[in-house]
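Service request form, structural biology core

Requester: graduate student, group of Dr. S.
Request type: structure prediction, single chain
Budget code: on file
Notes: please return the result as structure tokens.

Sequence provided:
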Amino acid sequence: MKTDLITREGYDMLYKELNYLWKERRPEITEKVAWAASLGDRSENADYQYNKRLLREIDRRVRYLRKRLEIVRVVDYSPQQEGKVFFGAWVEVENEQGDQMRFRIVGPDEIYGRKDYISIDAPMARALLKKERDEEVTVKTPSGEKTWYVNQITYNAPAE
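Core staff response, request fulfilled:
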């Protein structure tokens, strides 16, 4: 089950995608479908078939985004979160071998295309919630339990 939380940036990203698909991409593809249909026999018309399939995919994504945007709850930063790991935090952790990871805990709709984001539903994120700097965290993984140490917690995007 997906958690229905999302950061302000994530909500804006989904809303922007919805507007792009509905106001720009869909009319463009609809025009191509109409043009291809005007050529005659649709059964052997590759342009018609391809663009019709693309239109169905766009419509499916639009329906999903509309439903999702109604359901999700935007979680904004609050100063009371400072010093502990909560939703939206950038966290740097290190294991006993010295391997470091830096990521942001976000909603499940925001992780795609980003290697530095993890879902709030991930075992690592669940284990880190409410932890403070220099605390030890044990994460249950399919290959056994792993121990990580919290090095840093921020709520501002790291300087790249």
